[in-house]
Write a structure and sequence with these properties.
CATH class: Mainly Beta
Number of domains: 1
Helix content: 10-25%
Number of strands: 2
Distance between the termini: 31 Å
Structural class: alpha+beta
Strand order of the largest sheet: 1-2
Radius of gyration: 14 Å
CATH architecture: Ribbon
Largest sheet: 2 strands, antiparallel
Oligomer: single chain
């Protein structure tokens, strides 16, 4: 089993807003205005990844809607 490391704990604010800690922003290399993917893997875990810019290669993931 993979070892897990908790990088930060964040509070959820009104309308589902979450502030991402500086440590995580630095690791993901995200800045104000960037987009983030929330990805659910085959084990049901939710992962966070910096979304590509329009000039980057798109189509790495498919979007699905839960009903």
């Amino acid at each position: 089993m993979d070892e897990r490391v908790i990088l930060s704990t964040n509070k959820v604010y009104g309308r589902g807003r979450v502030q991402i800690s500086k440590r995580v922003r630095d690791i993901l290399n995200v800045i104000d205005g960037d987009f983030i993917y929330f990805i659910q893997n085959e084990y049901g875990e939710i992962l966070m990844e910096k979304a590509p810019t329009p000039k980057d290669n798109l189509g790495k993931y498919s979007l699905t809607r839960n009903k």
